[in-house]
């Protein structure tokens, strides 16, 4: 019983990390109708910036803030330089460009910072919390991770639904021509969308790097699971990103915990199974809007 | 409709041009120089492919980028540094060793291509220290069919000790089954009556290690076996399962990142088992680097060493302490030729295997051939920096035969007890090594 | 290339060029010809799937793995002649493509991308789960030798180049037949407007599944070729990086275009080697020197997609059009972006 609690809680924590990556993908999808395959790479790069700041100033929160700022800058810069030219071209071009961007960022990280593992600090203590004498398997830092992602999701969902900026973003993605005719500065809105996604990705990077250690490819697997979580939840829904992440994190935790030595092999196969089951029932993800019926 | 035909003809023409350009740019392969057995003094000849009167060209495939690169990408530059040192002090019989190592990103398909490039285009004399089990398996058949010496593979798989199928291939480091047996015997003797859990990487490294452990540790002591894959860092469930099984000792066949994660997860679960870790994942400097951010959080200690204290491991090279003659040599070569690298276990590995190669080349003769290198190794090599002897013989291509048990304290491994040697069979005994550790030569270069 | 005799003619000419090149070039270049031919086989199928039928797949590496492991198992346990092995590997992969295509029939855009991505990641881990049969992380060794009738001194790399190039050319001819057939037209119809195609009597689901079957067959064939060319099938050879490289090659060469499969394959096989050679010869420090090729490759991908939005083949068409004037048959109308979801 205790193990079940520990598996569940640790699954929730990792699920929240997948949710953070999923959120940034959802943001870019809702805002620009593009798949950003470089999301993990951008997060990795901003985390490197953070660790350099932390080493030079000794302050974790300074590094944290700089990482978020760097995420904004990097996101906007990528959109302005390499994504914008793909706007009216076949959509797959943008995907390939982001793949190129990912490769470029991993190469640059190796050049500037070297290929070694770097230890990244956690914001809070990593010793486990207990109820009485029973360890829960999560630490204060893990709680911070979960809360940070949850708050970000709520803010984002609210912003999309209730603010004018969110409305503009959704309009620009839905139909750029009509959005322009309505007076929306589409180009600026798209850049802002990428900048925000960069911010959230940077947050995901600093939250997960204590557990993965930082090296140029450290976000690769996290990105794959984050993308899967986004697809499970539905790419249009921030809430879906969190639900998808939690589902994935918790189920995979049970698989690894209860199936012993076979469990670690089966992790990605189980993730595939979850994905297939969800998509067979709802091809647009769990929280997809009802589609028009095709006649 | 003439347009499409013209287009296709032009396409074919462009392709032809491209092919011919590729041909023009490629260096044509020169056939190997005539092998000649050189006299014991006098002229240096081009006695084998890759050997000229001035240089010895060797090649390797290494993971320099990609998920497997952290840590392992230090090995080849360290070997190159030692070769530079040797070259600056006269080389091997006056020839300089030129070490060309190419990145394969730990992808066997790339390895297959890189090794063919080295052999067919660059005409290397030998393949040295090819790194990785699945990667080198993509190269070993080709190297043996081309009769290229394939020396000192950087992997602990038993598969390199197959003299009948792969006569050109030799291992170097201690293999994982031997490690498992040596660690297993220590656990059996020192933790009798306690519960033991296994934590291992789910590939041939971990599986071979567990095979060795199972040979020594009685099944009644084993409470749980948990595995991980190196693409998934969330090992909290496995550690929770180990805790639930009541394990008081965890034997871990893990790479350094996962040893560190194991330690962090045990902290999170408020669980303090004794950790017994394979040499592959126990380098104190690497581990303290990984753990340093958390040591700062956890208390007043400034470096990650506090979190590695008490870890038990096996070592087949001497400990990195200033009192050891090999460490002194390592530091000298490192500071001059590879100063940016950390002075850790991987760098020591790179230099030690390069040292063994120089010993082998010195024995291969003044004008070595590929065959003379193989015979030189099979005649037995001095142990050099190894703490035990090599197994090399006509029917045995395995490398190190033994290791000592050590405990990590303050970032240094302290030896406990004698060097133990064994074989890879389930019933083979583990005996105390009767030889002694060799001191590094004062010049830093092995004597012929 | 609108009639079969023309296609066969070009194929024969290319075959002759390849044979001559393989004899004139050195053994390593022959190996590269074999590598390129393997990629062309896989990329050609993928470019039809994504370009012609509009279904993105980030997981064709999984079909290559299926073909490769099938070939390795057949050669190891049953010792069949290699032609039979190649055909059966393609068939097994085709069957799995049918299963995947059916499961994915209702998926569009990023949802299809996500599902195929996870397929590409998850399938190779079966090798770890069944190490006895599939060899675990060490994989299965494959033995492949030159046949006796060529003589004892015939270089293995040249034979590998001939076999791979022959398979690639046969695949390209067959795919070209499909491209210009009713099936190809149905694919394009389904890609451009599903509703209109359905109204026209096209069985949309069947067309989409068939596209997956064809692309999986090509990938499986390529995987079997990879097994006999490199001599090993292991999960490390079929990572998600491979799937991404295939898609990249298809897009760079020109999505939906068969010559594009060749251009893209040339890029992904030759550019990394070339850039690595340039970097190492400049003697930079190890971590800088080994990462420059990585960064440079990323830049190449970005630049090619930005400069040639229709891929290299599209770029070549445009350059030729400058000399010969625009051809109304090959001009595509510029479609304004509607509120339909894109392929990304």
Short summary of the structure?
The complex is a heterotrimer of chains A (295), B (448) and C (344). Chain A is built from 11 helices and 2 strands. Chain A has helices at 2-32, 39-57, 60-83, 91-113, 140-162, 164-174, 176-181, 186-212, 220-233, 238-258, 260-281; strands spanning 128-131, 134-139.
Largest interface: A-C, 60 and 59 residues
Q: H/E series of chain C, N to C? A: HHHHHHHEHHHHEHHHH
Strand percent estimate of chain C: under 5%
> Overall mean pLDDT score of chain A?
89
Largest sheet of chain A: 2 strands, antiparallel
The total of helices of chain A stands at: 11
Q: Main sheet of chain C: which strands, in order across?
A: 1-2
Spatial extent as radius of gyration of chain A: 19 Å
- Helical proportion of chain A, percent range: over 70%
| SSE class of chain C | mainly alpha
Q: What is the overall silhouette of chain A?
A: globular
Please state the structural category of chain A. mainly alpha
Structure notes:
- The complex is a heterotrimer of chains A (295), B (448) and C (344).
- By secondary structure, chain A is mainly alpha-helical.
- Chain A contains eleven helices and two strands; from the N terminus they run H-H-H-H-E-E-H-H-H-H-H-H-H.
- Chain A has one domain.
- The mean pLDDT of chain A is 89.
- The longest helix of chain B has 24 residues.
- In chain B, strands 7-6-8-9-10-11-12-13 form an eight-stranded mixed β-sheet, with helices on both faces. A five-stranded parallel β-sheet of chain B has the order 2-1-3-4-5, with helices on both faces.
- Chain B has twelve helices and 13 strands.
- The radius of gyration of chain B is 24 Å and the shape is globular.
- By secondary structure, chain C is mostly helical.
- Chain C has a domain of 235 residues.
- Chain C has a two-stranded antiparallel ribbon with strand order 1-2.
- In chain C, helix 1 runs antiparallel to helix 8.
- The radius of gyration of chain C is 20 Å and the shape is globular.
- The two termini of chain C are 30 Å apart.
- Classes of the chains: A mainly alpha (295), B alpha/beta (448), C mainly alpha (344).
- Chains in contact: A-B, A-C, B-C.
- Chains A and C meet through helix 4, helix 9 and helix 11 of A and helix 5, helix 6, helix 10, helix 12 and helix 14 of C.
